From TrEMBL:
Residues 281-428 form the PurE domain. Pfam families: AIRC (PF00731), SAICAR_synt (PF01259). One of its GO terms (biological process) is 'de novo' IMP biosynthetic process. It comes from the Eukaryota. Signal peptide: none annotated. Keywords: ATP-binding, Decarboxylase, Ligase, Lyase, Multifunctional enzyme, Nucleotide-binding, Purine biosynthesis. This is PurE domain-containing protein. GO terms for molecular function: ATP binding; carboxy-lyase activity; phosphoribosylaminoimidazolesuccinocarboxamide synthase activity. It comes from Seriola dumerili. InterPro entries: PurE_classII, PurE_dom, SAICAR_synt/ADE2_N, SAICAR_synthetase, SAICAR_synthetase_CS.
Length: 440
């Protein structure tokens, strides 16, 4: 998108589709499918207004599709909500109306990051000999410089580094390129996992990043709608629901455009389902004494960060084995998938007794003390034959392990785990960059 610097005025009538009047300043950008407006009374935020226009081939083909703005905005808003709830940093703030959303003001990095799971489209033209349907594991990453006049040429990492882009005061160097590369993979995998719940293959997608003008952070920006990806229900290209249907039209007729619109509507309806959990589960923490409460609260807090409900109970397998087994039966009886976490100091009978009497997973997480911890831990590590409980000493790690179990069937939990991996990697990358800067 190219900047448009003409001052419009602070109290214009909002574009069609915006419910509440906003104090709109200048139009910051206008692209083929959207406009970006400054929000005068909300510094650091912008309004992203979608258009009804649909284009292909860098706007060589373009048409009006009534209702597309609302469809695209609905799709983008749901996708960004999913990514944000997972833990991905984005520019998205909130949906404002049927056709517009509010976002953090970013200076856009002029690169399209393309991530591919299945070989198709332009990749086949640029790589003769590769058959359509070839599956990339790991994912195939490509970069394209946003330059309509030259048909968005493919760039190498070296070209991006040599461009030395400086946006919102941040110079795009190796650290920033690595973060965008790693983030693109994580974003694709999260959306791929989500679409798989609808028996739909995410074939490939393109995304863009921007630099937040207030924080100088690199965040996922622009939009992700049905122009951004290829979606094949049941992995079948003949059922494709994305913009490729429009690109492939030999003739644009009203009937053909209705087919395209129905496909876009199908995606906008299905994308809402990506925000819904496909499974349920819980962690039940059993503590031998309320003196272990602080330890157990850490487990509960960590479970909450992954969206996993957590219940705390007090019971002793040594002093009240009948009550321990009664509590076990209570949670086995309602059919909710459960992971038990046994928190018992000194001699841990709680975890082994639970493991020997339930088919559900049991995790030992003993609250070890400095004086006898080295001896006490053996009661959690040395199990009789036939018992399969694991032992994890960190409360946070025990919760993470439980979440990984639930993530096998609940894509929302898996997405949070995947984003957490990314954020840990990014924090290390930035810490290293900061350390190097101090050492120079």
């Amino acid at each position: 998108m190219k900047p448009y610097a003409t001052k419009i005025g602070a109290y214009l009538k909002p574009p069609v589709g915006i419910r509440a009047a906003l104090k709109i300043g200048q139009k910051l950008n206008e692209g083929k499918t959207k406009q970006i407006f400054e929000l005068v009374d909300q510094p650091g935020l912008v309004l992203v207004q979608s258009k009804d226009q649909i284009t292909a081939g860098n706007a060589v083909r373009k048409d009006q599709m009534e209702g597309k703005a609302a469809i695209a905005n609905k799709t983008t808003s749901c996708v960004f909500k999913l990514l944000q709830e997972s833990g991905i940093k984005t520019a998205f703030v909130k949906q404002h109306s049927d056709t517009a959303f509010i976002a953090a003001h970013c200076e856009m990095i002029p690169i399209e990051w393309v991530c591919r799971r299945v070989a198709t489209g332009s990749f086949l033209k640029r790589n003769p000999g590769v058959k359509e349907g070839y599956r990339f594991s790991p994912l195939k990453m490509e970069m394209f410089f946003k330059d309509d006049a030259n048909n968005d040429p493919q760039w190498s990492e070296e070209q991006l580094l040599e461009a030395k882009f400086c946006l919102a005061g941040l110079t795009i160097g190796q650290c920033e390129v690595d973060i965008m590369n790693r983030s693109t993979v994580a974003i694709f995998e999260i959306l791929e996992k989500a679409w798989a719940t609808q028996n739909c293959t995410l074939v490939d997608m393109k995304i863009e990043f921007g630099v937040n003008v207030k924080t100088q952070e690199i965040v996922l920006a622009d939009v992700i709608d049905n122009d951004s990806w290829r979606l094949w229900p049941a992995g079948d290209r003949s059922q494709q629901k994305d913009k490729q249907v429009y690109r492939d039209l030999k003739e644009v007729t009203p009937e053909a455009m209705q087919v395209v619109k129905r496909n876009f509507e199908w995606v906008s309806e299905r994308v809402k389902l990506l925000l819904e959990s496909q499974a349920s589960g819980r962690v039940v923490v059993l503590m031998g004494s309320t003196s272990d409460m602080a330890h157990c609260e850490k487990i509960k807090k960590a479970c909450s960060s992954y969206g996993v409900p957590c219940v705390l109970r007090v019971t002793s397998a040594h002093k009240g084995p009948d009550e321990t087994l009664r509590i076990k039966a209570e949670y086995e009886g309602d059919g909710v998938p459960t992971v038990f976490v046994a928190v018992a100091g000194r001699s841990n009978g709680l975890g082994p007794v639970m493991s020997g009497n339930t088919a559900y997973p049991v995790i030992n997480c003993p609250p070890l003390t400095p004086d006898w911890g080295a001896q006490d831990v053996w009661s959690s590590l040395r199990m009789p034959s036939g018992l399969g409980c694991s032992t994890i000493l960190s409360p946070d790690a025990a919760a993470q392990f439980a979440a990984q179990i639930f993530g096998l069937t609940d894509h929302l939990v898996w997405c949070k785990l995947r984003a957490s991996m990314l954020n840990t990697w990014v924090s290390l990358k930035l810490a290293d960059k900061k350390l190097q800067a101090c050492s120079l």
